[in-house]
Design brief:
By secondary structure, the protein is mainly β. It is 8% helix and 46% strand. The protein has helices spanning 110-121, 134-147; strands at residues 2-5, 8-13, 30-33, 35-50, 55-58, 63-67, 74-75, 80-84, 87-93, 160-163, 167-172, 179-180, 185-190, 195-201, 213-218, 222-231, 236-237, 244-252, 264-282, 287-289, 294-300, 303-315, 318-322, 331-334. The strands form 3 sheets. The chain has a 6-stranded antiparallel beta barrel. A 5-stranded mixed beta sheet has the order 10-9-8-6-12. It has a 4-stranded antiparallel beta sheet with strand order 5-13-11-7, with no helix packed on it. A hairpin with a 2-residue loop joins β22 and β23.
Length: 337
């Protein structure tokens, strides 16, 4: 009788060596060595190679759209995101969107500090604090003159967009010469770092640990490696079947090897379990025992005996085994090639 065990076919034997149905144990056609080492079980999931999640850029100016960047363009601090009525809308770095006009007399706040940090980074002389004072007013006027904005000394949402850092233009949502309104999404952006994004089943979140290495297979059988950079903590519905997912972001060890691929499907190999310093045998060495469980045929010279074992992790064509008197270096029976 033959039973399935993982990827192997196993014969039904009794302990001691007699095969079910009678007859003495005979020497197997081939043998393999019992090895001690680490085994890593893996799980393969699907991901997408890109630059991370898209984020909309919300317009706060009214008028005619007179300029847009190209898709794929990288925009940094102080650079123009787009242009309305020929006035640039500029990117500055900050953790939260701008919510009010910043000018002399405005109450102190973190948004003032973020504006001042940007102005200082752009080369203007001022002290960074929460207060919009005369030095801030002077720096704003200098910046507006340098940028080509009306020199008013006040900064509004129609002039500046705060985003966490440098961005890459993912998609355009409007056309030059079109009228635009406040609240309209004109373009979407992502981060600039190449990464793989996985929507992982929330029930498997434990398999994704920040800093853990992963294997990646890209189109064209290109194989790369990476590390888990971020694991989401909020599960989001994935469909009508009640399943939910968490987002996992993976950085590439060598982004240059990915070429120019964007939004490409990727197979991601996660390490689901690592067993260190365990005994293992080839999967095909496993035998199904008549009374249940598994065993292996231990070959010692001309002697062959079946030793019951407990099977553990399956990985890389081998299986962890324990129990009996198995030792590293023993020979076990396997099917002939």
């Amino acid at each position: 009788m033959v039973l399935g065990a993982g990827a192997a076919a196993v014969a039904l034997l009794a302990p001691g060596g007699a095969e079910a149905g009678g007859g003495a144990a005979t020497s197997p056609p081939a043998t393999a060595t019992v090895e001690r080492g680490d085994l890593t079980d893996t799980l393969t999931v699907s991901g997408v190679l890109g630059h991370g999640a898209e984020q909309p850029v919300i317009n706060s100016a009214g008028g005619t759209l007179t300029a847009l960047p190209a898709e794929g363009a990288v925009i940094g601090r102080g650079d123009e995101l787009y242009e309305v009525d020929r006035d640039p809308v500029v990117l500055m770095y900050g953790p939260k969107p701008m919510h009010r006009t910043l000018e002399l007399g405005v109450t102190d706040g973190a948004d003032v500090r973020h504006l001042e940090k940007n102005l200082k980074a752009l080369g203007h002389d001022l002290t960074v604090d929460d207060h919009f004072g005369l030095a801030t007013l002077t720096a704003v006027r200098e910046w507006q003159a340098d940028t080509g904005l009306p020199v008013t000394g006040s900064v509004s949402k129609s002039q500046v967009v705060f985003l966490p850092g440098k961005v890459r233009v993912q998609a355009l949502r409007a056309s030059v010469a079109a009228p635009v309104r406040k609240g309209q999404t004109l373009l979407t952006v992502t981060g600039v770092e190449r990464m793989v994004t996985v929507q992982l089943d929330a029930g498997r979140q434990r398999l994704a640990k920040k800093g853990a290495p992963v294997g990646l297979q890209l189109p064209g059988e290109l194989e790369l490696t990476g590390k888990i950079a971020k694991v989401g903590t909020v599960a989001k519905p994935a469909g009508d079947d009640g399943t939910s997912t968490v987002e996992v972001r993976i950085t590439l060890d060598d982004p240059g090897k990915a070429g120019t691929l964007d939004q490409a499907p990727v197979s991601v190999e996660l390490q689901s379990e690592i067993r260190r310093g365990v005994l293992s045998v080839p999967v095909e060495a496993l035998l199904a025992l008549r009374e249940g469980g598994y065993g292996v045929e231990v070959v010692e010279g001309s002697s062959v005996r079946v030793v019951p074992v407990k099977a553990g992790v399956f990985a890389g064509g081998r299986v962890e085994v324990s129990g009996g008197d198995l030792r590293e270096g023993m020979r076990v029976g396997v099917p002939g090639t």
